[in-house]
Recover the amino acids of this structure.
């Protein structure tokens, strides 16, 4: 990250730049306290409150923080990204302006075979380097050919909005994107996931780096309770029945707070009822 | 439930009535299959697909089912309910029309003391019957007094929009409420929770009864994966370290499908990494 | 329109199909009447109420009607369409499934020059038929070439999600799209406009045909008060000062209802104040 | 307004306080220019661009500005306000905390009779001062009585969430409210209107004062094109036929810009077609 610019390069020609934000951890606490009719407290209590809100899905205080990003990204990623509806967008327009001669070309190590067990993703296995080289070569050749065609149409005065329809999905576009922290966490939860397409994960990870310094407690809570948690259905718990020995509980080395231990006991009770 | 009318009475004078719906389990499947480029399959595969979507939070197909309810409810509950923004509402208006002489009076067993450990709720302990009787008596007396005052103002031709400002939050209102199934599940998740106020839980439970026959697979999946699941943070798992013996895994009696067992193994790996 | 199928073909290979709807004109009236505390009235009064709601932008009752469409459309149109956020979408996925060999090829009369005074649109003037022929020829040639490349990559087992990135924006996709009538009218207002790209206007017009028989009063009110109205700013009215003679008012031949005439008088007063 | 505090008192005990904002007129321009692929221009061109965007309902750049307010308001106003769904809210909770002894008492000049021609509003005519005095006296007496009852219930340890249900709608609550400028303009359009209840208009007017210094060009454009414009339906134009003489057009004294004059001519053409 270039700290001065708050910009992180993504893929071969893209970037995410944090251009503005409203509020930080303190704004989350302030909004929550209006509900509780409480005033200012210590930093430690603020942290505890933020963690409590995250854990118990009291999401509205996180909506009080807003971020605005400038993003440059390939169109096929823009199409996945835009599905997150609770956000504001202004995108570069291929009707008003000429599309630029910039296309996404993957690194060779990201050319992979179709995954066998994941219908929507890439395999982790090695892919023939020869095939990958050929793929990249034809990819680049075609991008350059299509951009030339586009330029020719424009030179013949074909309207921009129709000349651009054969540009490929690898063409870069850019936009301003504004979103609140609650909805950004939702975006990140889905787009950091290993089932998300690699190319959008790169952007999600960049966004994490940009927001961490602004909402450190909220981000940590998001990691602890959302990213690094495990959700077990009743049937999964029953399946795990004989590896769980509830008689052996020992909280002496736990780093959980008093309130979290109380919450854990409620979960233990729920598990007990399921496996009995 | 009165099956003919699709209506369930709630509290002393309220109700939820399902007045229309668009789509059912089949509509969820149909929408999901357009993503996968697949056609019709067997009922069993439909059920499996719905459960897969729910488990993996592929929420958009659930948005393809829409419900419309007619609800009569006290204003203080309407104020909690309306916080769910992704829904459509038309409410009875105290500016256009006279408010009716109908007020919520709790059953005596629902008059409870303030909870000691739950700042937002009622205690489960017995409450003095005498005090509860007195409370109810003054509640009813005041409701009737305030409605008389309101009627008097109206008789003196005070504008409705200003005459009604001293009516109490226990006054009943009614509205039409339209919401898609994904957002309805979100509403239910929060309002079925034992931390939700008793009076709104009654409505949430009524809604469950009304929608179950229409989306039986989706509702069952919601119960299994959302209501009856347990979410454990990394630190909670570490705290539970010495009651888990991962060497003893045995899937032979499990009712999980093959795909679910694969998903469980990924969770087991995650747990392993946390407690090692 | 094929009435049996509720389907209208759009462009060369696309379509809009109305697959379900919830509610009609009566549902709008029913929702409005809950606000007014009123019951059923005559058809004529229903029509008047719907027109009153539209004219005065009481939009929430229109949200009580919901439509679900199946749409096949080129990706560059899908990118404009998806900007309407208050809707539900399930789209065919190029990660899960192979994209099909279907691309948009405009009719020759829709190949136009860039407009001189409209930066985002096509000129209305004649375009050289030779140039248009050449454009179409290269468009089709390139589409077919790019699809072959795509198929080759897939045959070499390149993952679908990466193989598709050089497919052009003219490639057809399809989706299920669900939206309420208020938000649909907003979509139509923008996409029927002559500044909208021709290719999306075709879909907007098809949607009008499909919904008209279901909500005839609401649709007529939309046309009368939204599409065929003229909005004049204060400065525009001042500019028109000497073509307006307010002393000459004569309502005797007007088809406006009594209520509308009262509303018109309020507007006349506003105009008077501006031009005095 | 207390400039230091950015706070404006509303009604007898309420207020609106602007506590934070993200972006200003420049942010609107910046977002619009990413669409047009343009860079920075002169202040005058910025103003022209903002006015163009407002006039032509290119609303998304206005979404790039965000405001956060702290508001204290009576519950019956909060119930109207919350209907604006595209906003973020954290409200004081009567389950967590004791409601305060603060109730709205109107000024005597705001006690009016029911309007005869406006079913939802107050008459403009004089109201008997005696009746108004009596109304206010009983209002205040009842507020004070009900708050005492509430305090008694709490002293007897009745749970807060149930003790508060007979508090009247005139009780003050408070919240944090965050909204983008586009949606704020929509709120203002509806709540500045003379059909809006007087008590919410007071808050809408306060918000105008608070945002004007931050987005002066956007606010001016909103006033010119939204508040002070007149919308005429085709039938209204036909009704006005004989007061319009289109042969007499003279733009020589107009303050409209060249682009606006071109837009006006398009409207004139539309009017011509309607009245011919």
């Amino acid at each position: 990250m270039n700290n001065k610019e708050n910009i992180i390069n993504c893929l071969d020609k893209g970037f995410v730049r944090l251009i503005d934000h409203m509020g930080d951890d303190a704004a989350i606490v302030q909004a929550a306290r209006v509900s509780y009719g409480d005033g200012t407290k210590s930093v430690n209590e603020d942290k505890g409150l933020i963690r409590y809100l995250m854990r118990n899905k009291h999401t509205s205080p996180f909506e009080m923080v807003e971020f605005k990003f400038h993003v440059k990204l390939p169109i096929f990623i823009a199409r996945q990204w835009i599905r997150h509806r609770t956000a504001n967008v202004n995108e570069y327009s291929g009707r008003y302006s000429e599309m630029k001669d910039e296309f996404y070309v993957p690194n060779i190590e990201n050319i992979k075979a179709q995954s066998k067990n994941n219908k929507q993703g890439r395999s982790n296995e090695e892919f023939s380097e020869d095939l990958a080289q050929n793929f990249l070569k034809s990819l680049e050749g075609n991008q350059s050919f299509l951009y030339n065609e586009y330029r020719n149409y424009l030179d013949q005065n074909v309207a921009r909005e129709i000349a651009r329809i054969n540009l490929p999905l690898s063409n870069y576009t850019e936009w301003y994107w504004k979103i609140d922290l609650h909805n950004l966490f939702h975006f990140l939860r889905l787009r950091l996931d290993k089932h998300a397409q690699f190319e959008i994960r790169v952007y999600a990870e960049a966004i994490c780096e940009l927001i961490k310094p602004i909402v450190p407690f909220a981000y940590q809570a998001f990691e602890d309770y959302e990213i690094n948690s495990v959700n077990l259905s009743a049937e999964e718990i029953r399946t795990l029945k004989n590896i769980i020995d509830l008689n052996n509980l020992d909280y002496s080395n736990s780093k959980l707070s008093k309130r979290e231990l109380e919450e854990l006991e409620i979960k233990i009770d729920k598990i007990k009822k399921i496996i009995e």
